[in-house]
Amino acid sequence: MSQIIVITSGKGGVGKTTTTANLGVGLAMRGNKVALIDTDTGLRNLDLLLGLENRILYDLIDVTSGRVQYKKALVRHKKYENLYLLPTSQIKDKSAVDPEQLVKLCAEMKKEFDFILIDCPAGIEQGFKTAIAAADIAIVVTMPEISAVRDADKIIGELGRADKNNIKLIVNRIRPQMIEKGDMLDMNDIDEILSVTCIGQVLDDENVVVATNRGEPAITMEDSIAGQAYKNIVARICGEEVPFIKPQKEGFFARLKKLFGLI
Amino acid sequence: MLDILKKFFGAGEKRSGTVAKERLQVVLIHDRATVSPEIMDKIKEEIIAVLSKYMNINRTDMEIALETDSDSVALVANIPVNSMRHAK
Ligand SMILES: Nc1ncnc2c1ncn2[C@@H]1O[C@H](COP(=O)(O)OP(=O)(O)OP(=O)(O)O)[C@@H](O)[C@H]1O
Ligand SMILES: [Mg+2]
């Protein structure tokens, strides 16, 4: 059974595209046939994160407008041969694709792929509505930061109104030192506020920037802590139980133990 | 010394993570309390339907709204009653 997953967030710049690229590569490395659809029309980036920017001939708009077959527009990854990208147009805008067109396209692609991941644009307007229309599962990406969590809550409400009830949460760019000092929302806080099942906690990691520079997602790096978190998310998507290592606020007893030199 | 003690017991000023959590809890009460006019009309019709079993109400003057203050939300209704029906 194939799965269609949209990666969304409300707030911009929290890591949707990074997540899509990493999960796509991770799922493909496990032998799944994976298609990534970039719906951030006008601001395309997924091609860059995957190192595929020089190989694009056609785009999503060419497909939805009926100019070419979707197979012609797919870009196959050089290294991970089960991974395909359907890039979007850099010239058109979000209104160029409507929800029905994407639903129709995904229904067709579903026959060929195990996973279809849709990279959603920021915001809650037409682009968002189009991106979520075809999805069975929505992954909401947020950061441990007040405005990102608020926007995630808004998005979760919008998904519910659109009858998308299979919602999972990824908290990205966690900084354990700040949590330890009590200067960052921790997972318990976010769980309590959003009450959505969490499938990933990704630390803030310089390797993500290095990976983006190279066009090779962090999940391919051996020593990237974010890469490891993405591997765990991929395993959870595939139905495996992987425990979380929770960075938590330092409690009274932890402080007490520290004082007496127990840790 | 007092500073060290304070630090140890975590007393003194609230850490910003806690402040963020508290502010979020309040702001989300407001965010989530926004109900579309269509839903509000539906709620209104259903309240009227229930109340009409027991009393005649003045529909034109009735008011119903969600009111939010700093940390809570209330459904406030003002429904003038023209007459009561006989209890069955
Ligand atoms: N775990 C991480 N550690 C460090 N940097 C990160 C991490 N995740 C994302 N970033 C950086 O944050 C920036 C935004 O990421 P990304 O483009 O994936 O966000 P986005 O949600 O897709 O943004 P947009 O809303 O513009 O589409 C990028 O520069 C990326 O390298
Ligand atoms: Mg993006």
Molecular structure report:
- The complex is a heterodimer of chains A (263) and B (88).
- Chain A has one domain: Rossmann fold, CATH 3.40.50.
- An 8-stranded mixed beta sheet of chain A has the order 3-4-2-5-1-6-7-8, with helices on both faces.
- With 263 residues, chain A is of the alpha/beta class.
- Chain A has 12 helices and 8 strands.
- The longest helix of chain A has 16 residues, at 146-161.
- In chain B, strand 2 (63-69) and strand 3 (72-78) form a beta hairpin.
- Chain B has 88 residues and is an alpha+beta fold.
- Chain B is elongated, with a radius of gyration of 23 Å.
- The termini of chain B are far apart.
- Chain B has 3 helices and 4 strands; from the N terminus they run H-H-H-E-E-E-E.
- The A-B interface holds A 145-146, 149-150, 153-154, 157, 178-179, 181-186, 189, 193, 249, 252, 255, 259 and B 8-10, 15-18, 20-21, 23-25, 27-28, 31-32.
- The site of magnesium ion has 5 residues of chain A, from helix 1.
In short:
Helices cover 40% and strands 16% of the residues of chain A. Chain A is α/β, with parallel strands linked by helices and 263 residues long. Chain A has one domain (3-259): 3-Layer(aba) Sandwich (Rossmann fold), CATH 3.40.50.300.
